[in-house]
Amino acid sequence: MLRRKPTRLELKLDDIEEFESIRKDLETRKKQKEDVDVVGGSDGEGAIGLSSDPKSREQMINDRIGYKPQPKPSNRSSQFGSFEF
User: Fold this and answer.
1) Which residues lie in Polar residues bias regions (predicted)?
2) CB distance 43 to 49 below 8 Å
3) In this predicted model, what pLDDT tens digit does every residue of 8-24 receive, in sequence order?
4) 37 vs 34, 41, 48, 54, 57, CA distance in Å?
5) CB 47 within 8 A of CB 41
């Protein structure tokens, strides 16, 4: 393997300005998202999730992710259908 000297990276004024503009843009997006979360949380849905019992919290999570649990069958005929042996 050939060894070479490390490449020197130079920080230019344009790079600094670009970094600052991107950082400001990200900060404004973050503030807007926080504002939306605060406004969205005041409609009652967030308060319900914090103060309710674990069963309704689990139901709310299942609704949010689209999971619809099916009840487990209690006897063998419902598990295997009507097979005859």
Assistant:
1) 73-85
2) no
3) 989 999 999 999 999 99
4) 5, 6, 15, 22, 19
5) yes
